[in-house]
Write a structure and sequence with these properties.
By secondary structure, this protein is α+β, with helices and mostly antiparallel strands. It has helices at residues 2-26, 46-50, 54-64, 84-93, 102-112, 121-131, 137-165, 169-174, 182-198, 212-226, 233-240, 243-253, 261-293, 313-322, 332-363, 365-382, 403-407, 410-422, 468-472, 475-478, 527-541, and strands at residues 67-71, 77-81, 98-99, 177-180, 428-433, 437-446, 452-458, 463-467, 545-548, 562-567, 569-574, 587-592. The chain is built from 21 helices and twelve strands. It binds protoporphyrin IX containing FE. GO terms for molecular function: heme binding; iron ion binding; monooxygenase activity; oxidoreductase activity, acting on paired donors, with incorporation or reduction of molecular oxygen.
Length: 595
């Protein structure tokens, strides 16, 4: 075994050496744009920008403009981009030149298989063609009842939390109880995505439910973050070793007696991937069998399990795949890849957005009250008997809004949009050039020598950071109050004002003119699902529960103060001294809304 280990670490050393060589060769192609001084000989500007660097990421764009040279690890130079014209060029016009980077793609392939976030070029295009119609508005409309059932379960779980803590009924209305809502939001997002996308009954909101697959999915995101350190080596190993040797290396690296935390993390990820893989295979087989048994008429949407299963996206995708031409058809490996990718892409992103929306409403009680009035008003209208709706009441008799009403409530829409704009779940992304290229700028920046330039030239293999946050906070298009949370800005379209557009200049995002879900053919395919879920959860919780920022004092007299930490995602933590500043928590003070 010692020999095997030696080989394993030998290959790792070779990989590190190749990495250093590659980075050294890039020195010859220095970027000619201005940017901040290097802050650390090895870490460059990486730490201050990307380890809890929300404000720094905004400040750099405000100081240097929409294309900035930043210093990455080991002396490498990256381009930090947020200019609207540049982003359109990079993400839409010449997307084939500005691709996802090798590390991202290779790691995704290992973890998720052949899904959308692991493929490039023609294969990616073919997958998008199959999947785009699955996320159509008419399919979302069909899915809403599934989401509504889960939102109501979430509401019941939170309300029972209040009941458990306040013994007397009158106290439940008067007294506030502090609850960490984050685990509940995360469970409800998991149920939404499992039921809506896979048609798999995860029952994560049922805390008594022990399900290996659901647990694995919950741990997936954090486990990937913990093993980021391996990411740069994966493409090198993938390029230079056959599948046999790659498997052998993973075996050596995950042998149980290697004691370090990094290896433990790696083993944990491997275990999660194995569980995910076998569960996805079982679900795929089950869905296939159900489809073969069901009637071929497209109108049939009922099955033995309660009438909703075949409305899930997986079933829709399988039906579309079966009836497509052989050239367009996705292989089983690709179908399995999509299942894994959807869960990963839709889980933490939506949880983070929902958590932020509730936090912002807790921070702005007046907006919360106005929104509650809007939702309750819509529900009251909805209870009028002649209104045409198919799912107006749930089993507890509460009103449910139809898809069209839910998606068109003006203030709900404004709150969701403003939250997603200001606090995008994925604040930055990376890209790499496949060949030398140049792109134009909307707003000129300075070159390294101080001249004004309106285009940037980049060499092959140049790394870029797409700054979604800097784009969404850009004062040149959003106005001077760009960094303030003002849902009102979305209510002015009737006055002829388009939010995010100034003098005809705007970002070309798929969702309004913000970059939260990106643009181009790698943009978020699930944004309609995310928007519907966030709106439905808010519309279900607010009529029943009032949310406020924490105000209880602990034994030392400290009140919990929430800080949103930016590390890949935006995560709420409780600041010291009331919290550890590390563990994700979102304690909010809750009380029942009096009927
Ligand atoms: C608030 C919630 C969400 C946000 C902010 C978000 C944002 C994004 C962004 C920025 C990308 C581009 C990533 C890149 O290019 O590297 C992306 C891609 C993607 N998203 Fe989302 N997303 C959300 C929810 C969802 C949901 C609910 C699903 C699925 C049901 C989903 C599925 C995907 C997929 C499959 C991709 C890859 C698309 C491709 O490469 O072609 N996302 N998302």
């Amino acid at each position: 075994m010692a020999f095997a280990q030696l080989i394993g670490y030998g290959v790792l050393t070779l990989a590190v050496w190749k990495l250093i060589q590659r980075r050294a060769s890039k020195k010859a192609n220095a970027l000619d744009v201005a940017g901040p001084e290097k802050e650390h000989w090895c870490k460059g500007n990486m730490e201050s920008m990307f380890v809890d660097g929300f404000q720094r990421c905004l400040d750099i764009a405000a100081e240097y403009g929409g294309a900035v040279k930043i210093h990455a690890l080991f002396g490498e130079e990256w381009l930090y981009v947020s200019d609207p014209r540049a982003l359109h060029h990079i993400l839409v016009k010449e997307q084939h030149i500005f691709e996802e980077n090798d590390g991202f793609l290779s790691c995704n392939k290992l973890v998720f298989g052949d899904g959308l976030i692991s493929t490039l070029g023609e294969q990616h295009r073919k997958q998008r063609k199959m999947l785009n119609p699955v996320f159509s508005t008419s399919n979302m409309r069909e899915l809403l009842p599934i989401i509504q059932t889960i939102s109501h379960q979430l509401k019941s779980a939170l309300v029972s939390n209040l009941s458990a803590r306040s013994e007397h009924d009158h106290a439940r209305y008067r007294e506030s109880v502090e609850v960490d809502v984050l685990p509940w939001l995360s469970r409800s997002s998991l149920d939404c995505i499992c039921e809506g996308v896979l048609g798999y009954h995860s029952a994560a909101l049922d805390t008594g439910n022990e399900d290996e697959y659901t647990d694995a999915l919950r741990m997936l995101g954090p486990s990937i973050t913990k093993t980021m350190i391996f990411r740069p080596f994966v493409p090198i190993v993938t390029r230079n070793c056959s599948l046999y040797w790659r498997k052998k290396m993973v075996d050596w690296l995950t042998i149980s007696w290697l004691p370090t935390q990094t290896m433990r993390n790696f083993r944990e990820l491997r275990h999660i991937v194995e569980i995910m893989d076998s569960a996805s295979r079982a679900i795929l087989q089950e869905k296939r069998a159900a489809l073969q048994l069901s009637s071929p008429t497209p109108s049939q949407t009922h099955d033995t399990s309660g009438g909703t299963r075949e409305k899930d996206m997986m079933s829709i995708m399988l039906r579309a795949n079966a009836s497509s031409s052989e050239v367009d058809r996705l292989s089983d490996a690709e179908l399995l890849g999509q299942m894994n990718v959807m869960i990963f892409a839709g889980l933490e992103t939506t949880t983070a957005a929902l958590a932020r929306a509730l936090y912002m409403l807790a921070k702005h009680p007046q907006v919360q009250e106005q929104l509650r009035t809007e939702i309750c008003g819509a529900m009251a209208v909805y209870e009028v008997p002649d209104v045409d709706h198919s799912h107006a009441k749930d089993e507890s008799g509460s009103a449910r809004l139809s898809y069209d009403v839910l998606m068109n409530l003006p203030l709900l829409n404004a709150v969701v949009r403003e939250t997603l704009r200001l606090y995008p779940s994925l604040p930055v992304l990376t890209r790499r050039t496949t060949e030398a290229a140049s792109f134009p700028l909307q707003f000129p920046v300075r070159s390294a020598s101080g001249e004004k330039i309106d285009a940037v030239h980049v060499a092959k293999n140049q790394r870029l950071v797409i700054s979604i946050i800097a784009a969404n906070h850009n004062q040149a298009v959003w106005g001077e109050d760009a960094s303030e949370w003002k849902p009102d800005r979305w209510l002015k379209s009737s006055e002829g004002v388009t939010p995010g557009e100034k003098d005809g200049v705007k970002y070309s995002g798929v969702y309004s003119s913000m970059m939260t879900f990106l643009t181009g053919n790698r943009s978020c395919i699930g944004f309609k699902f995310a928007e519907m879920e966030i709106k439905d959860v808010l519309a279900t919780l607010l009529p029943a529960i009032h949310f406020a920022l924490p105000s209880e004092r602990d034994d030392n007299g400290n009140v919990k103060e929430i800080h949103w930490k930016m590390s890949g995602f935006h995560t709420p933590v409780v600041k010291a001294p009331a919290g550890d500043g590390e563990t994700p928590h979102l304690p909010l003070s809750m009380r029942l809304v009096r009927e």
